[in-house]
Design goal:
- The chain folds into 5 domains: 39-90, no CATH class; 93-119 and 348-424, conserved putative lor/sdh protein from methanococcus maripaludis s2 fold; 125-130 and 260-339, Efflux pump adaptor protein, beta barrel domain (Elongation Factor Tu (Ef-tu), domain 3); 136-258, OB fold (Dihydrolipoamide Acetyltransferase, E2P) (Beta Barrel), CATH 2.40.50; 442-579, no CATH class.
- Helix content is 27%, strand content 28%.
- It has 580 residues and is of the alpha+beta class.
- 28% of the residues are buried.
- Strand 17 and strand 18 form a beta hairpin.
- The strands form 6 sheets. Strands 4, 5, 6, 21, 22, 23, 24, 25 and 26 form a 9-stranded antiparallel β-sheet that branches. It has a 6-stranded antiparallel barrel with strand order 7-16-19-18-17-20. It has a 4-stranded antiparallel β-sheet with strand order 8-15-13-10, with no helix packed on it.
- It is elongated and about 160 Å long.
């Protein structure tokens, strides 16, 4: 083949231009790229460009479900979110049945926040309800020691003040008449038979007549049909058990007299708070009649027996009441500041996923190149304010998730890994909730990552705190039945009936049932705290939905799930986590 000079020049030019272009494109990539000079954004882009499959095509994944991988753009088959290039998956961090690796963007989207495990002396403010009670040692019964009939009733109402030796009533009794005759006869012969005389006087003493009354009988020298019953102590009549002309038998308690110069303040301590309370501790308390005045008292006695109905123990202190400030049965609200002696490992309450016998926290692997979280079973100690004491399972310096733990747990569950609701990872026995085909867009996914704390703050800013007074002051016997009816109405999607039952808890105007459900979540959390602290006469169940607002609890009187947050859309979504 004859090659002309023109062709040679053309081929030479093409080769030269190709060499220049090759140097421009590839020349700086061979051991000349200074990664230290790249910004974080440039580094991320560099890693993403390198993350391709064997054919050179980019791998796409879901920011919320990194296990999803495909070689073309699209939507996540699990949550429907748009897939992104899998650049951030280029890491040495590994996953197993007890851990999960997230992309940086998925961690940000889920608003995962961590805090270092803290070692310090646990402190707690113990809130205790209680009431003023009569000092049992200052309570006196006025009892008849013979049968008879009440005639002139001087103290005829309960609560009447009384002084010692003041006349309370007069009584007619055949036994009393016979005893007077014996005394008068013995008095005439006391010189010859002093023992008989002393025996006649002693009978009256045993019947609780005073020496003055006995002397008056002798001085009169005649039998009286009625004798006076005198008060044995100063105080107030706490009960009156007789009326005029009423017949009484021997041993009948006709009056109870209490000296109220000193009274008891008796607090109800819940079982979980007992280790924070000791004899000698000082606490402050307020009464409803004087809410602005704070009083102090010292624990003098702790009942050795737990009340089987309320699951509480009575804690007692003595009060000086010489000015009659405190009235029996007056309600009080006390606070006791307590602290342990030794330092303990502490984690925020929101870090702990409580499942009864098991407690779970998620620990961040700080050595990994990308966010990696590992499930850790821990042994819980007592709750100390906003923290839990960790007895076993964590070490100093570890970082635990305190915001977004439910989100991670949900992803672990969906991936069939060890989680709060999946005890057998890899077995395929993943608890599946019936979501009723409900589609969730990106906005809903982001909204569901908020936890209870942030949601509560939002409600307070919007003025939804009006129900707090009712939930703190109203009796549980009133609140719980109304709450259960409200829960049932929401589960049945009955907006009208839900509005009726919400009137007890809030005076807000609600435009639709979703507004009601937002309010219902906050009411549920507050009511759960009261039921757990005070107890309730009846069996209740604490139930949990992981989907609504990052995880939400409610109370039910039926163990079967009927979700009040989603109604018919996801009626069976949730589980019973605790019996209250």
């Amino acid at each position: 083949m004859n090659i002309t000079k023109t062709q040679i020049l053309t081929y030479t030019s093409i080769l030269f231009i190709g060499m220049i272009l090759g140097w421009l494109i590839f020349g700086g990539s061979n051991n000349h790229t200074d990664h230290n000079q790249l910004t974080d954004a440039e580094m991320d882009q560099h890693v993403m460009d390198e993350h391709t499959d064997e054919e050179g095509e980019i791998i796409y994944t879901c920011s919320m479900h990194p296990s999803v991988r495909q070689n073309e753009p699209g939507d996540c088959p699990i949550c429907g979110m748009e897939l992104i290039p899998a650049g951030s998956q280029n890491t040495v961090a590994s996953e197993d049945n007890y851990s999960m690796v997230m992309t940086a963007s998925s961690e940000k989207l889920a608003d995962i926040q961590t805090v270092q495990v803290e070692r310090k002396v646990p402190e707690k403010v113990v809130n205790l309800p209680g009431r003023i009670e009569v000092d049992e040692r200052r309570l006196t019964n006025v009892t008849t020691h013979f049968s008879g009939r009440i005639r002139d009733l001087k103290i005829d109402f309960t609560g009447a003040p009384i002084r010692k030796d003041e006349v309370m009533a007069t009584i007619y009794s055949p036994e009393l008449i016979a005893a007077q005759r014996e005394l008068l006869e013995a008095a005439r012969q006391k010189d010859r038979n002093p023992r008989l005389y002393e025996s006649a006087r002693q009978k009256f003493r045993l019947w609780e007549f005073t020496e003055e009354q006995i002397n008056e009988i002798e001085e009169r020298g005649s039998v009286q049909n009625e004798l006076e019953i005198l008060s044995p102590a100063n105080g107030f009549v706490m009960s009156r058990n007789v009326a005029e002309e009423q017949h009484v038998m021997e041993g009948t308690v006709i009056f109870e007299v209490a000296n109220l110069d000193r009274v008891w303040v008796v607090l109800e301590a819940y079982e979980q708070d007992l280790e924070w309370i000791s004899i000698g501790d000082t606490f402050t308390f307020q009464t409803r009649t004087h809410p602005g005045e704070t009083q102090e008292a010292t624990v003098s006695f702790i009942d050795p027996v737990v009340d089987s109905r309320t699951r509480t123990v009575r804690v007692r202190a003595e009060l000086n009441n010489s000015n009659e400030t405190f009235k029996p049965d007056m309600l009080v609200r006390a606070q006791l500041n307590s602290r342990m002696q030794d330092e303990k490992l502490l984690v925020p309450v929101s870090s702990v996923l409580w499942t009864g016998k098991r407690s779970l926290v998620y620990v961040k692997d700080t050595s990994a190149d990308v966010p990696r979280f590992e499930a850790k079973l821990v042994e819980l100690g007592p709750k100390a304010g906003d923290f839990y004491v960790i007895e076993d399972g964590l070490e100093d310096g570890q970082e635990v998730v305190f915001h977004g733990a439910f989100r991670i747990d949900s992803e672990m569950q969906l991936a069939d890994r060890f989680s709060m609701m999946n005890r057998e990872p890899g077995s395929g026995a993943v608890p599946v909730h019936d979501h009723g085909g409900m589609d969730m867009d990106d906005q809903q996914m982001e909204q569901d990552t908020d936890d209870h704390t942030s949601h509560e703050h939002e409600l307070e800013e919007e003025g939804h705190e009006s129900h707090s007074d009712v939930l703190m002051e109203e009796d549980l016997e009133t609140l719980v039945p109304s709450y259960l009816q409200l829960r049932e109405a929401l589960a049945n999607d009955d907006f009208g009936m839900a509005l009726v039952h919400m009137e007890l808890f809030s005076e807000e105007d609600f435009s639709d049932i979703e507004d009601l459900r937002e309010e219902f979540k906050v009411i549920s959390e507050m009511l759960i705290v009261r039921v757990e602290e005070e107890g309730y006469d009846g069996e209740l169940y604490k139930q949990y939905c992981p989907m609504y607002d990052g995880g939400s609890n409610w109370i039910s009187d039926n163990e079967e799930i009927a979700n009040p947050f989603y109604g018919s859309q996801m009626l069976k979504c949730g589980e019973t986590v605790e019996t209250l």
